[in-house]
Amino acid sequence: MKKLALVATLAVSAALFSFKTIAPTTWTVDKNHAKLTFTITHMGVSDVEGSFKIFDATVIAPGEDFNNATVDFTADASSLNTDNDARDKHVKSDAFLDVAKYPTVTFKSTSFKKVNATTYAVTGNLTLHGVTKPVVLSAAVRTGVGQNKKPVAGFKITGTINRTDFGVGSGFGDAMLSNNIAIVANAEFDQN
Question: CB-based contacts of 21: which residues, under 8 Å, 6+ apart?
Fold first, then answer.
């Protein structure tokens, strides 16, 4: 009986100490291989695309994959670019983003859940035009090894927001500018 208890104790101890603790990993955006774009429909007939040129992002993954990761993203609102100076000036004005008053766009995830091997559902708080609202996005993730022989991850994050939820362009109806704005972020992240 004592031998059985000793064997059981050793087996439980071995099992408990055999689990490897995985430290959280931090991933930093590679700005040379990243772009944040948006698309809005003008007068119901054409799509206008734009991007933010100045941004930063980090991802902290608590395990071997990105399940339950946290994402922090910040963009300089004045870096908005639609390839048309007059339109950019108008969108940056108080009629839309009011970048003088609200200089940053931020996103902080509250949930990052694995849907399948390469797709995650990302929920978080988006702050745009001084208004913070929850949004749901989809993230497709690919991983590999970069040129520096360190882990690298590629994210394609997509989603749609309603500009009126954030008070953006409230003087322009849906017939002039679609309420929905499609967001696409393609970015490589390097593991620190």
Answer: none
Model confidence at 147, in pLDDT bands (50, 70, 90)? confident
With respect to residue 164, please indicate whether it lies within any of the assigned structural domains.
Answer: yes
How many domains are contained in the chain?
A: 1
CATH of the domain at 181: 2.40.128.110
Helix (H) or strand (E) run with residue 13 in it? helix 2-18
pTM, two decimals, is 0.87
Identify the domain containing residue 114 by its residue range: 23-191
Q: Which residues pair with 135 in a beta bridge?
A: 124
| Domain membership flag for residue 92 | yes
CA dihedral 96, 100, 103, 105 (to 10 degrees): -10
The Cα-based distances of 187 to 18, 44, 120 in angstroms read 36, 30, 15
CB 180 within 8 Å of CB 158: no
CA dist., res. 189 & res. 112, Å (int): 16
Please choose, from the candidates 152, 145, 54, 42, the residue with its C-alpha nearest in 3D space to the C-alpha of residue 105. Answer: 54
**Rounded alpha-carbon distances, angstroms, from residue 38 to 25, 145, 147, 183, 186:** 29, 29, 29, 5, 11
* 7 vs 45, more confident: 45
Contact (CB, 8 A) for 115 and 131: no
Neighbouring CB atoms inside 10 A of 175's CB total: 8
